[in-house]
Amino acid sequence: MRHKFAVIGLGRFGNSIARTLAERGAEVLAVDNNEDHVEDIKEDVAYAVALDATDIRALEAQNVQDMDAAIVAIGEDFEALLITTANLQELNIKRIITRAANKQQRRILEKMGIQEILSPEGEVGKTVAERLLQPNIRTFLPLPDNYEIVEINTPRGIANKSLAKISLREKYNLNMITIKRFFEEIQDGKPTQVEHIIGVPKADTIIYPSDILILIGKKHDIKRFIDINR
Ligand code: ADP
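== Trk system potassium uptake protein TrkA ==
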């Protein structure tokens, strides 16, 4: 069954959430009290409706209560954000995700029992800083309990060694998911570097200097592994 989400507030943040969800196949109800913002996204989501989300009857009329989750992405008008959030709680929406611009707003939302609070500005800043500090980390998927999946360039210290020799599990508590490797192939008559996955790595798999490693483990273990083998 398709996931159903309501996105309320279609500024830059809400607009990008709504679009991404729709692109990934979710059924999205996009809501804003500004007609222009609704118009802007109409073609790209299942439903786009202009209404004032502080009006609980208006939300109910759009069946917001049947959504799997609702995201409140209203930015500047914190009062509207609070009333909208309270409306969603009153409509018994299973999962409510709300935006907070600062610590005070976050505290109030926590006191209302909201468990998922997003601070887009703060989160982007954190991601950028982490990327700058860890130039080896190409992408990462944060997971609960401080775990993450990362894609890293091969640290110099482990190049040309076998997996068994590196003792990823024993020494670093890390698991290698797979390796991305470049192969020279002829395309349109020209030798071209093409990226492949080597499948599930084995103990005798040798790591090449140009390999990209995909690892899972705790953040501090990944950092330690990179630092030691830099
Ligand atoms: P950003 O662009 O940083 O995501 P904005 O504050 O510009 O944030 O966007 C918030 C959006 O929320 C705007 O499109 C605004 O029209 C919308 N909005 C504000 N109040 C309400 C409301 N009561 N009901 C529905 N949408 C609202």
